[in-house]
Specification:
Number of strands: 10
CATH architecture of the largest domain: Alpha-Beta Complex
Strand order of the largest sheet: 3-4-5
Low-confidence stretches: none
CATH class of the largest domain: Alpha Beta
CATH topology of the largest domain: Homing Intron 3 (I-Ppo) Encoded Endonuclease, Chain A
Length: about 160
Amino acid sequence: MTEQILTQDQVKSLFHYDSENGIFKWRFNNGGRVSANNIAGCKNHHGYIVIFFKKKIYQAHRLAWLYVHGYMPPQQIDHINRDRSDNRLINLRLATHSLNNQNKKIQINNTSGFKGVSYDKKIKKWVSNIGINNKNNRIGRYENISDAIHARQIAEIILRW
């Protein structure tokens, strides 16, 4: 038996989605915990809003895309402002895994304060790197941090084209 895929019509019959604030609300009462106009979903341990319906958990950002565009995207959906609970339509975009990773916050162990720039203690230089197609690529090694940052910024611009 194949899994039933939720359709746009089904989502619209279950929920009202406000694309301005990114909030889903139930359209019906079920006699239990669900009441019409109650906010649907809650934040999971990863910070995403999830909605539980018919023994399945749905990510609200994916439901929002289905609700508005009529299809469940095969690729990832990126939260542009990095807030995983912000499901306003203006904050959502289709993304490859690579693009989604580029929009991550700077890691806590980052010493330079800039993505892709770090200090190599062995060679005593600043190093610029950039990820392309799941592979880390060295841009160069630099005496000062500003040159390393500038090289990384140029690489980002070039790769966007």
